Amino acid sequence: MIRVENLTKYYNDVCAVDRISFNVQKGEILGLLGPNGAGKTTTLRMLTGFLKPSSGRIHVGDYSIEDQLLEIKKILGYLPESAPLYHDMLVFDYLRFVADLRGMDAGRHLDRIRELGDLCGINEVMHQPIGELSKGYRQRVGLAHAMMNDPEVLVLDEPTSGLDPNQIVEIREIIRRIGKAKTVVFSTHILSEAEATCDRVVIVHRGKIAADSSTARLKETLGGRSQIHLTLADAEAADVQRALAAVPGVTGAEPLDPVNGAVRLRLTCDAARDPRPDLYRRIRSTDWTLLEFHQETLTLEDVFRELTKEG
């Protein structure tokens, strides 16, 4: 449904998006993840035609954004991070205004507003001024706005930003319901949110794609790894790091700040092999004194931090 090829965007000499490519299948919910400043919003603004790419191609359905932008806008709904609402209007009047802007037949207005009221859970606030609503309800009204033309593709930029935990769960549920019939692309920097909502995630960092996979696959290939924390007395840090990094199943050895002269080390381990028996035997064969030895399984949040850490 969406094809992005070598998409690049410069702001003067700053490269915000650097030759990224990905596809989104029809009916798929895709999460665009990354830390603040990673290029998520810039990418979504190019997808929706709000920004012109410096280079690269975007196709939505059978249309190219380069010369068929109007056709794309007819099949696409977009909710920016700050929903563009008129706060002095009643919710119902605002949605009727949006329907007029979309060129919807006047006889269809009431039915469509009722449908969106049920879908987005805003029937109880239809006759309240938008400015008096909580942020959660304003986001729902923004979703109704984006869905007014019954788009094939829905693009949402940080749809749960600034919401409380209950509101976040409610918006997630609405997105899941919409995703049963639509192609949805939304950005977030909260990995648990993507895991709860998305079929697939694209993680971006400093304008580049760091990972493109389902959350289950990320768990299987990356999240299944573990870390082992060690504290050893009567040892030299360099000797410990060199000896334990060579143990089968250990993929990395990172020194930590010593405590009371004791050597501290964090080992990253392969998911396919448990190195703990070999590590114990290797330590036992030395004169080192083992003070601490514990394992932690990497979560998706750990993987996200690893993929997007500086350097």
Q: What does this protein look like?
A:
This protein is an alpha/beta fold and 311 residues long. The chain has eleven helices and 14 strands. The chain has helices at residues 40-47, 69-74, 91-101, 109-120, 135-147, 165-179, 191-197, 215-223, 237-245, 276-284, 300-308; strands spanning 2-11, 14-24, 29-33, 55-60, 63-64, 76-79, 153-157, 183-188, 200-205, 208-213, 226-233, 250-259, 262-269, 289-297. The strands form three sheets. It has a six-stranded mixed β-sheet, with helices on both faces. A four-stranded antiparallel β-sheet has the order 2-1-4-5. A four-stranded antiparallel β-sheet has the order 12-13-11-14, covered by helices on one side. A hairpin with a 2-residue loop joins strand 12 (250-259) and strand 13. Helix 4 packs across helix 5 (135-147). The longest helix has 15 residues, at 165-179. It is elongated and about 85 Å long. 34% of the residues are buried.
Low-pLDDT parts are: none
Task: For the record, give the distance between the C-alpha atoms at the N and C termini, rounded to a whole number.
Answer: 34 Å
**Number of helices, where a helix is a run of at least 4 consecutive DSSP H or I residues:** 11
Strand content: 25-35%
Annotation, overall tally of beta strands: 14
Strand arrangement in the largest pleated sheet: 6-7-8-3-9-10
Order of helices and strands: EEEHEEHEHHHEHEHEEHEHEEHEH
Helical proportion, percent range: 25-40%
Task: Tell me the structural class.
Answer: alpha/beta
Largest sheet: 6 strands, mixed
Radius of gyration: 25 Å
Shape: elongated
Overall pLDDT metric? 90
